[in-house]
What we know:
Blueprint: E1 4-9, E2 18-23, E3 26-33, E4 36-41, E5 55-57, E6 60-62, E7 69-71, E8 87-88, E9 90-93, E10 96-100
Antiparallel strand pairs: 1-10, 2-3, 3-4, 4-8, 5-6, 6-7, 9-10
Amino acid sequence: MSEYRAVCRVGDIAEGDGKTVCVGDKLIAVFRDGGQYYAIDDCCPHMGASLAGGYVDNGIVTCPWHAWRFRLRDGAWADNPRISIGCYAVRVEGDEVQIQV
């Protein structure tokens, strides 16, 4: 059964920003967009850039290296949804942002 783990606190991530968190041996990018929190794999499959440092707009993060775009809600590549990266359920409990692992 999956469990949720606290990865940061509400307010640690500004609107439109991302943050890299480590859960076990996995790097995950947590974003705040439109008042909601999202979590996807932090590594762009193209060349390995951290997606947490990308530009967030309208539910999509753009990789800072080569502009590959990924949907925050499901990790799909916005330009070819057949390709996707890991996406994780997020919940807020009290002041903790938690992701399901």
